[in-house]
Design goal:
The protein has 388 residues and is of the alpha/beta class. It folds into two domains: 257 residues, Zn peptidases (Aminopeptidase, 3-Layer(aba) Sandwich); 115 residues, Alpha-Beta Plaits (2-Layer Sandwich), CATH 3.30.70.360. It is 31% helix and 22% strand. It contains ten helices and 16 strands. Strand 1 and strand 2 form a beta hairpin. Helix 1 packs antiparallel against helix 3. The protein is elongated, with a radius of gyration of 24 Å. This is Acetylornithine deacetylase. Belongs to the peptidase M20A family. ArgE subfamily.
Length: 388
């Protein structure tokens, strides 16, 4: 049976549901996407290894050629949830609207796999000096469990890794970390007519928020990186829930917040600073304060400006490497010894939105770029590259 065309593969990936979400009613297996990729890549001669990370969730490592070094083309196989009523087209069907391909995952980022396959197809009759690995992970949009599992296993992947997240075909060598945290305060309820009857969790939380805002101001004075559009770390007080009635002293209150550290800021040191502010407040208000992450953090990421991959991508794209505020799987691949870069054809402005799309004008440049990267890392002997 002949391999599907590029457009057919792109459409099949969009049509394979793979929502990753912390809410069980939305969360889905990514097996349909992994099975499609494994079948196509297997037919092209790739050795395909599927790894179960949790029930219904899988990573795919598909390799062509063998030996150390080589190139990893990486992406996540899942999407965010969607509200079909807000879409003007079927989100699970590839639609051509003007100069765009529209569909869930077209930009962020299942379409990248079809582009990678299209790039490598005409090269497979040449001898690969170093391997090409196409990596598809699970649950990037929620827990990043797939990338975390790879990092924890410690298995080397390649000399260089390109993650095809939406960057408008501009290389990204830095991004902020992502920390989503929660503080729970347990006080004691009582009749509001006599404050001595209870310990207000809401009033304690007011002081907690004051301390968090103070830490934010301190960190923004101490840390600055002008390569980012927002050059300081940010801390957003996202949602708060507490109390149940105006005439009761508030017995419980919870706050969830988002902290985006710059490269060079250690998440555990940030948490230690927060805990240091919370302990005195618990004593002052006679309440219990519990603090911890909602999810394991995504560490900040930075690849050296003089790295081979960065210099090569800058030359091939004509753009200097930049920084973004959103998080990716880059720090996990970097931990495995890969020079790592984030570089893909989509635009982050339309990701996670109704009408997510990929500009048709980006397809040919992306295929050409990926083909050049494969040729550099896989078809040329490493000693020849080093002599250039």
């Amino acid at each position: 049976m002949p391999l599907p065309s590029f457009r057919e593969q792109f459409a099949a990936l969009i049509a394979a549901p793979s929502v990753s979400c912390t809410q069980p009613n939305w969360d889905q297996s990514n097996a349909p996407v992994i099975e499609l990729l494994a079948a196509w890549l297997g037919d092209l001669g790739f050795t395909c290894e599927t790894q179960q990370i949790t029930p219904g969730k899988f990573n795919l490592l598909a390799s062509y050629g063998s030996g150390p070094g080589g190139l990893v083309l990486a992406g996540h196989s899942d999407t965010v949830p969607f509200d079909a009523a807000l879409w003007q087209t079927d989100p699970l069907k590839l639609s051509e609207v003007g100069d765009r391909w529209v569909g869930l995952g077209s930009c962020d980022m299942k379409g990248f796999f079809a582009l990678a396959i299209e790039a490598v197809r005409p090269l497979l009759d040449q001898p690969f000096q170093q391997p090409l690995l196409i990596l598809a992970t699970c649950d990037e949009e929620s827990s990043m469990a797939g990338a975390r599992a790879l990092a924890e296993a410690g298995r080397p992947l390649g000399r260089a890794a390109v993650i095809g997240e939406p960057t408008g075909l501009k290389p990204i060598r830095l991004h902020k970390g992502v920390m989503m945290e929660r503080i729970d305060i347990l006080g004691r309820s009582g009749h509001s007519s006599d404050p001595a009857l209870g310990h207000s969790a809401l009033e304690a939380m007011q002081d907690v928020m004051g301390e968090l805002r103070g830490l934010r101001a301190q960190w923004q004075r101490e840390f600055n990186n002008p390569q980012f559009g927002v050059p300081q770390p940010t801390l957003n007080l996202g949602c708060i829930h507490g109390g149940d009635n105006p005439n009761r002293i508030c017995g419980q209150c919870a706050l969830e917040f988002d902290l985006r550290p710059l490269p060079g800021m250690d998440p555990e040191q940030l948490r230690a600073a927060i805990r240091g502010k919370l302990q005195p407040l618990a004593l002052k208000h006679q309440v219990r304060i519990d603090y911890g992450p909602l999810f394991p953090e995504v560490p900040p990421f930075e690849q050296r400006a003089d790295a081979e991959l960065v210099r090569l991508a800058e030359r091939l794209t004509g753009h200097a490497a930049q920084a973004v505020a959103f998080g990716t799987e880059a720090p996990y691949l970097q931990r495995l010894g890969c020079e790592t870069l984030v570089l893909g054809p989509g635009d982050i402005d339309c990701a996670h939105q109704p009408g997510e799309h990929l500009e048709l004008a980006r397809i040919e440049p992306t295929v050409a770029l990926l083909r050049q990267l494969i040729q550099h890392y896989c078809l040329t002997r490493s000693e020849d590259v080093q002599r250039r």
